[in-house]
Design a protein that fits this description.
By secondary structure, this protein is of the alpha/beta class. It contains twelve helices and twelve strands. Helix content is 38%, strand content 16%. Helix 4 runs parallel beside helix 5, helix 6 crosses helix 7 and helix 8 crosses helix 9.
């Protein structure tokens, strides 16, 4: 996965002007019955500074797509995974809410249920239904080429969110909107160093294979520990597939095979919460006997932090609706869109978790 790094400051500055003040509205329900009220203003998603976004700019003319008024358009959204995960619930709802706010003529939505072949057919079906612009949350970084080619053949622009595809920007897709996943891993490592004092034995619950999120979150974490805390030894790395039940199963196994583990880095909150359940069942105190740091920012994980059963959460903001549609409007307005538009993500710890709970999703 090689991405050209040519900064387009002017283009991003224009994009920021349109997006920095947009408050996302797609806060979701969690899997437990939390009673805290979601504060959407706390959960707003925004692009970082111009220097943080990169890649050659893509304009409507360069892409070769026809001009389009979104209020007279059919827009398609392809979700990658079943909406049992709070991240996916919030992401889909944010797209729906913003489409309604913008006044999109018709929004088509599909869910691939974690099946690559289904996501390909979903996108092709939306094209057959007349989709003129596509927002895609890719299941994997590779494998969507048939769908992307089908969109390109009809000159339908594709905007990817939350995961990158290993394809050519401004040919196969317009741009990527999402987090800096390496940076997320690095920040998780810093939080782990802080909560452990830089010593102990760490297990990593890896995300699903085949996408850049898992690869990058692992790299950021491992490299940062190596550089800053050699006393924190990584003793296990096993995939929990971004699922709570799988994270629990892996943690149960690790408690038996690696009973001296003192810390867990989960590459999403669902796996981290699964680890909490496994640790409790084994008579251990999560957050105390075993430190836990994860990535996402779900309501349940932040609540666990408030409860003292967690130690830190690095946010990965799923509320893409406002930024995605603002980007589409800029694109159709003739402005260049950077290849990579990187968003800001907060961090939760014991000092701010209770006050920030309303901004979790």
């Amino acid at each position: 996965m090689i991405i050209q790094r040519r900064t387009r400051t002017l283009a991003v500055a224009c994009l920021l002007a349109a997006t920095a003040t947009l408050a996302a509205s797609g806060c979701s329900k969690s899997e437990s019955s939390d009673t805290a009220t979601t504060d959407s203003s706390q959960g707003a998603q925004a692009a970082k500074t111009p220097e943080s976004s990169s890649g050659s700019g893509c304009s409507l003319q360069t892409y070769g797509a026809p001009k389009l008024d979104l209020k007279n358009a059919v827009v398609g959204f392809s979700q990658s995974e079943k909406e049992a995960n709070p991240f996916r619930i919030a992401e889909t709802q944010s797209i729906k809410d913003e489409a309604k706010k913008v006044g999109v003529k018709k929004l088509l939505t599909t869910n691939a249920q974690s099946q690559l072949s289904k996501q390909i057919s979903d996108i092709q079906d939306m094209l057959s239904q007349g989709a003129q612009f596509l927002i895609v949350a890719p299941l994997n970084s590779d494998g969507l080429e048939p769908a992307l080619k089908a969109a390109a053949a009809k000159k339908v622009p594709v905007l990817t969110i939350d995961r990158k595809v290993n394809s050519t920007a401004c040919k196969d897709y317009v741009a990527f909107l999402g987090s800096d996943f390496v940076e997320q891993g690095k920040r998780a490592a810093d939080a782990m160093i802080k909560t452990t004092g830089g010593k102990g034995k760490v297990a990593i619950l890896l995300g699903a294979s085949g996408n850049n999120v898992t690869t990058d979150r692992t790299k950021g974490f491992v490299d940062q520990l190596k550089a800053e805390a050699p006393g924190l030894e990584i003793v296990a790395q096993q995939t929990g597939e971004f699922a709570r039940d799988k994270g629990q199963q892996v943690m149960e196994q690790l408690i038996q095979s690696k009973p001296d583990i003192t810390a867990v880095y989960a590459e999403n909150d669902e796996m981290g919460l699964g680890a909490v359940t496994a640790l409790k069942a084994a008579g251990k105190k999560p957050g105390k006997d075993v430190k836990i740091v994860s990535v996402d920012g779900t309501r349940n994980a932040v609540q666990a932090l408030v409860n003292g059963e967690y130690n830190a959460v690095i946010e990965s903001n799923p509320r893409f609706g406002p930024l995605a549609f603002a980007t589409a409007q800029k694109f159709y307005g003739g402005e260049e869109i950077p290849e990579n538009v990187i968003i800001t993500d907060r961090a939760y710890d014991e000092s701010n978790a209770k006050a920030s709970l309303g901004g979790a999703f």
